[in-house]
Specification:
Elements (H helix, E strand, L loop, with lengths): L14 E5 H18 L2 E2 L9 H7 L5 E5 L2 H9 L3 E8 L5 H10 L3 E5 L2 H8 L9 E8 L7 E2 L3 H12 L3 E7 L11 H24 L6 E4 L2 H5 L10 E2 L9 H6 L9 E11 L4 E4 L3 H4 L12 E3 L5 E6 L4 E5 L14 E6 L2 H5 L4 E6 L2 E7 L5
Parallel strand pairs: 1-17, 2-10, 3-4, 4-5, 5-6, 6-7, 6-8, 8-9, 9-10
Antiparallel strand pairs: 1-11, 11-12, 11-16, 12-15, 13-16, 14-15, 17-18
Bound molecules: pyridoxal-5'-phosphate.
């Protein structure tokens, strides 16, 4: 049920809050950055999974997005979105649903990295004169999904896709998730450069065997926050987290703390001087366990209280203690609120059904979140 509070401090807690001014600034910065580079931004929806935030990220066009679940794809299609890339290795149980979306939308794209997936598509020819639009996932040393960029197998799969009737090789998709191991801009740009070089070299190898048409796309939030000039030679980029950012991104060097748009509002529910701790009503069910409590301040940063640490959580409780010295309980009366800046916004957002959207603390909207696979 929607909360009727006027200000975020009065919300029933724990509550996920989104600063609309910061969201708009993050989205506009990314749109402008890639407009200037002459590269199409295909924002990824996985972080927020809402219609309102998608509209902000696409600048209102409702075109050209990436999603990580088919449920998201259907949700956006149902709300007038088109040019949707299901950027996840094609699951065989979902071919029929992908076929229907391909037949329904002007542009629906699937992604694959193996020949069996390609065979699955050929067993379900599309109606209405449509062809399957396929992006091949290339592993440019990220080490998750994809065919390894330097191999003959990668070239062969691209050739197989482009020679298959009823299928078009629309693009090559690499995700530089290895930027998440970086510390600082220099390391991020080094990986952005490596990934860009690898995919562009692969595109050259495709040309050499007569495959000219496919687009190229890379992008994680760190690499797209600090793009290298060569990224101007790509067709597209596909970051997603940047719209919220989080503590992890600030530690990597993708953003400043003031660029983080989201918080979990929590209330002090207990004082325990005998163990120098207080208790808050945010456990892992509202924050997630992402980060494993390894931040110097534990599972999150407590806004405005660098001296505090969220040391541990159970499902609905969080224990807070000072980094050193004795806790001054008069600063944190029972019932007062604290604002937790999450380690990983995608994980924390996933714990909530409704986002409380505010401008300078005043609630201006609530966004309903879409879930499912
Ligand atoms: C395949 C794929 N594309 C794009 C993204 C978006 O990257 P980021 O979360 O760094 O913005 C992700 C994120 O996990 C992803 O897995």
């Amino acid at each position: 049920m929607a909360d009727t509070a006027e200000f975020i401090k009065d919300l029933c807690t724990p509550a996920f809050v989104v600063d609309i001014d910061v969201v708009r600034r993050n989205a506009e910065t990314m749109l402008e950055r890639f407009q200037q580079l002459g590269v199409q931004l295909r924002p990824h929806m996985k972080t927020h999974k809402t219609l309102e935030c998608a509209d902000i990220m696409t600048g209102g066009s409702r075109r050209c997005i990436a999603v990580s679940t088919l449920a998201e794809a259907s949700f956006y299609a149902d709300h007038g979105y088109d040019d949707v890339l299901y950027a996840y290795p094609l699951p065989f149980d979902k071919v029929e649903r992908c076929a229907r979306l391909s037949e329904r939308l002007a542009l629906f794209h699937v992604l694959l990295d193996n020949k069996l997936a390609l065979q699955q598509l050929t067993r379900r020819p599309l109606q209405r004169g449509k062809v399957w639009r396929v992006w091949m996932k290339l592993d440019c040393d990220n080490g998750r999904a994809g065919v390894l960029h330097s191999t003959q197998d990668a070239l062969q799969l691209a050739r197989d896709i482009s020679e298959t009737t009823g299928v078009e090789l629309t693009g090559i998709y690499a995700h530089c998730g290895n930027t998440y191991g970086c510390k600082g801009k220099e390391q991020i740009t080094a990986i952005a450069q490596e990934t860009t070089t690898n995919i562009l070299q692969f595109m050259e190898r495709l040309k050499a065997i007569g495959i000219q048409g496919p687009k190229s796309s890379i992008g994680s939030t760190p690499s797209c926050s600090h793009p290298v000039p060569d990224m101007a030679m790509l067709s597209e980029v596909h970051p997603g987290n940047y719209v919220f950012y989080d503590v992890q991104q600030s530690l990597i060097g993708s953003c400043r703390l003031e660029d983080i748009a989201v918080r979990v509002v929590t209330r002090v529910i207990g004082h325990y001087p005998h163990r120098n701790q207080l208790l808050v009503d945010c456990g892992w069910a509202a924050l997630s366990q992402d980060g494993g409590g390894r931040l110097p301040t534990g599972y999150a940063i407590i806004e405005g209280h660098a001296e505090l640490k969220l040391t541990s959580m159970t499902q609905e409780h969080g224990r807070v203690e000072p980094l050193s010295g004795a806790l001054d309980y008069s600063q944190f009366p029972l019932g007062s609120t604290l604002y937790l800046i999450p380690h990983h916004a995608c994980a924390t957002a996933m714990m909530h059904q409704v986002y409380n959207v505010h401008s300078k603390g005043k609630i201006v909207n609530t966004w309903k979140v879409f879930r499912g696979w």
